[in-house]
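Render this sequence as a predicted structure.
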Amino acid sequence: MTTSQKGIAVVTGASAGIGAIYADRLARRGYDLILVARGQKKLDEVAKRIAGSTGRKVITIAADLNDKADLARVETVLGTDPGITMLVNNAGIGAVAPLLESDIDKMEAMIELNVTALTRLTYAAVPAFVVRGGGTIINISSAVAIAPEILNGVYGATKAFVLALSLSLHKELADKNLRVQAVLPGAVATNFWNASGGSLDELPSTMVMQSDDLVDAALAGLDQGELVTIPSLPDAADWQAYEVARQKLIPNLSLSVSPARYRIAAAA
């Protein structure tokens, strides 16, 4: 087995769906892999298939990222393995039910995985990447990060966090040779919907992208240097216009004087 020139990519949520396809595509690009997910059996199946078809070295870590001890084990690997050059923060869970029908304990668990675990893994990887002279962070967010009205609001909020963190990291680390990409998928044909209590059958087929098409589009966006990739967005100019409008707001978000519309004379 040859030693990878690209280094090692760590992919979370890698036992199925988007994560497993990222693992396959990155191995074909020349990365060795560390695959993280809860189920050892499924991880082993993915690892065997990828190693057999690509010749890359594939290591697995069975870990529940909602378990602090398991999460700490993965953090340690990210911080200490000098061969790691990429982290794909893909692990996450969703919800489709509205607030009044949601279980608060399940919402808390979703926050812990989608926000807390992702943040801790990022904080483990980034300082190590800086010391090593560079690296890549790919954060799987969601289209609901900018359209939280579509699904469960807590889920949308967790994905908005991922987008905000990615934008901040990009600016903060601009001179550190680090690549940051936030991927905002729409509806994708994975087990997400069943696990979230919904069904793809409720959506028109024109809204649902296949997971391999999603990953291929996301990696094309990475190759093109995109900070934010929306794989199903037909016209990139639409996102650019959104970003231009957001940037226009920024200088006026904190001023010493309120605008005239808020300076209402006190009632007599």
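Summary. The two ends are 84 Å apart (CA to CA). The CA atoms of residues 217 and 234 lie 12 Å apart.
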